[in-house]
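To illustrate the input format used throughout this study, we show a single complete record. The first block contains the structure-token representation of the backbone; no residue identities are included at this stage. The design step must infer an amino acid for every position from geometry alone.
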């Protein structure tokens, strides 16, 4: 096996050369997928880039690639494994690249919540569970087996609308902010949303609060997007009267209400690229993406919404060394860091994901 540690003694130029060579030698047998939050030195090697929804779709569209090397985080690689063909193998260059938000809901806690809710109402007939794609495969399987589905930041509104056409209530996990912002965009008032805290008995709610709620939100959040504050929007607007603000819907309701646009990572790029030269933007999402747009469009004035650095530490774990190590091991016939969702779980999770793909 090619060892990882000695790769840390190489210069960036040497690593660049070795990755390019390995990629060339592997040819179409290997496809590299890159999420928009990846650091630039890794992102430039991706054959296909996108937000979570786009990457989920792309995962199944390169059947000639025996290996899918996923430069992103764990749940994304799981989705690629679930949606790709059986002969394909998905690899995550660093297994420690998780998502702290995804870790805020686990199957035991969600099953407990479902049971607790079931003591007050007929959960299976009245509630549709929706898991944000930022969640483990077993939660997607839970949704698959409870007539529920998955959503991403780019389709959460249409998925919520679909879910509410099926049953009167939704249990949305793990991101409370995406759930609240998407429900609000459908015109659902905040007093018809309740926050389920898995650390408290009965989620800290009363039967009356659950009865009133159309959307039951899980108490989870993204620690990166949580850092953007409404006063950051106010401050930039005071400094630059013509600034337009675009934020990711994982930001709080208060921040999203002050923004001009909300969008997934793909949508943020699309909107800013389509804007005229000379326009002025504040962007509220992970720093690597914002810096990429800044470098790409020097003719626009692009600002990071937060005065401090907001980076996704787990996305950052995928570095050139891990990518090089993964590719060079493939060349030696060794697949490292395979992500393989157990078959039964994958089948149920696929049901939920396919429901999403049909309804978005
Ligand atoms: P996107 O689906 O918008 O790429 O978001 C993924 C994510 O993890 C944002 O924090
Ligand atoms: Fe998870 Fe937040 Fe990182 Fe996205 S930015 S992968 S939600 S921790």
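Output of the design step:
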């Amino acid at each position: 096996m090619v060892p990882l540690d000695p790769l840390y003694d190489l210069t960036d130029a040497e690593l660049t050369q070795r990755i390019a060579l390995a990629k060339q030698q592997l040819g179409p047998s290997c496809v590299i997928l890159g999420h928009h939050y990846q650091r630039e030195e890794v992102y430039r090697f991706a054959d296909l880039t996108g937000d979570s929804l786009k990457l989920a779709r792309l995962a199944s569209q390169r059947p000639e690639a025996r290996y899918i090397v996923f430069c992103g985080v764990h749940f994304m690689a799981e989705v690629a494994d679930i949606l790709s063909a059986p002969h394909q193998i998905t690899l995550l260059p660093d297994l420690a690249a998780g998502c702290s938000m995804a870790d805020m809901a686990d199957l035991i806690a969600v099953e407990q919540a479902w049971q607790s809710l079931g003591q007050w109402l007929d959960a299976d007939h009245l509630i549709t569970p929706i898991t944000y794609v930022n969640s483990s495969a077993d939660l997607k399987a839970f949704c698959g087996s409870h007539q529920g589905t998955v959503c991403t930041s780019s389709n959460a509104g249409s998925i919520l609308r679909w879910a509410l056409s099926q049953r009167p209530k939704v249990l949305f996990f793990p991101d409370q902010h995406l759930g609240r912002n998407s429900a609000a965009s459908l015109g659902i008032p905040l007093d018809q949303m309740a926050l389920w805290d898995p650390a408290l008995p009965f989620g800290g709610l009363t039967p009356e609060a659950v009865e009133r709620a159309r959307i039951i939100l899980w108490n989870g959040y993204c620690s990166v997007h949580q850092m953007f504050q409404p006063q950051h929007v106010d401050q930039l607007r005071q400094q630059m009267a013509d600034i337009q603000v675009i934020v990711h819907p994982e930001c709080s309701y208060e921040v999203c209400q002050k923004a001009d646009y909300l969008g997934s990572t793909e949508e943020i790029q699309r909107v800013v690229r389509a804007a005229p030269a000379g326009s002025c933007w504040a962007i509220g999402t992970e720093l690597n993406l914002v810096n990429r747009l800044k470098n790409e469009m020097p003719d626009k004035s692009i600002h990071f919404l937060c005065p401090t650095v907001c980076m996704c530490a787990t996305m950052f774990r995928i570095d050139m060394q891990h990518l090089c190590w993964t590719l060079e091991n493939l060349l030696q016939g060794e697949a490292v860091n395979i992500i393989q969702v157990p078959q039964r779980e994958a089948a149920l999770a696929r049901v939920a994901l396919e429901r999403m793909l049909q309804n978005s």
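Structural context for interpreting the output: The pocket of 1,3-dihydroxyacetonephosphate (ligand 1) is lined by residues 36, 51-52, 134, 152-153, 222, 248, 250, 264-265 (CB under 6 Å). The chain is about 45% helix and 15% strand.
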